[in-house]
Amino acid sequence: MAGQGSGGNVIAAICSFFIPGLGQLVQGRVLSALMFFVVCTICYTLWVTVILIFLWPVGVIFHLWSIISAARYRG
């Protein structure tokens, strides 16, 4: 990948917008991708099933963090 603001980072940020962690996976950062995906999936799932309804802000924060991290990555 090229530097911050490159087309690759924009594509990675768009990927992370739809699926948290996908942008990191596109950039080759497997552990970051796994962490973002697992945390967001758990938070969103618990929110939808109304088990722990107060966790949705945590999922949103990690989702936004995933998008910003993909956009600002410097390889």
UniProtKB/TrEMBL annotation:
It comes from the Bacteria. The keyword Transmembrane applies. The chain crosses the membrane at residues 6-23, 53-73. Keywords: Membrane, Transmembrane, Transmembrane helix. This is Uncharacterized protein. It comes from Alteromonas aquimaris.
